Amino acid sequence: MTVLAPAPSGGADVLTVATVHLTGEIDVFTSHALRRRLMRALPAGAGLLIVDLSAVSFCDASGLAVLVGIQRRARPRGVALTLKAPRPLMTTLLRVTGLDRVLTVVP
To answer: Which controlled-vocabulary keywords does the entry list (predicted)?
Structure first.
């Protein structure tokens, strides 16, 4: 986790950014561990959770459910979830399911 701003004593806002780099497949066999990992990575208070998908080779419905579930948990905490650099297959999956309109996805 990285804090990008001076400490609050300096009068500036603090944005906590956590980045999780995923590799391999996200499926029914790995989704539970992924959920636990992302929950631990959620910054406390205002922040940003970036999930780097550039090395994800496969994702099934259970993986998508984890990403949607994490967003639902992040929002009330004031944390924004961003999916970064999905491969073409993942981008297509997000588009076909309509999740590209629900989740923030950046190249």
So the answer is: Membrane, Transmembrane, Transmembrane helix
Local confidence band at 5 (pLDDT 50, 70, 90 cut-offs): very low
Q: Which helix (H) or strand (E) holds 2?
A: strand 2-3
59-107 pLDDT tens trace: 999 999 999 999 999 999 999 999 999 999 999 999 999 999 999 999 9
Residue 13: is it exposed, middle or buried by C-beta count within 10 angstroms (0-12/13-18/19+)? exposed
**What is the set of domains in the chain, with CATH numbers?**
23-106 (3.30.750.24)
Q: What is the pTM of this model?
A: 0.85
First to last CA, the chain: 21
Residues 6 or more apart from 63 whose CB is under 8 A from it? 26, 27, 30, 31, 34
Which segments of the chain does DSSP mark as H helices, in order? 31-41, 61-74, 88-97
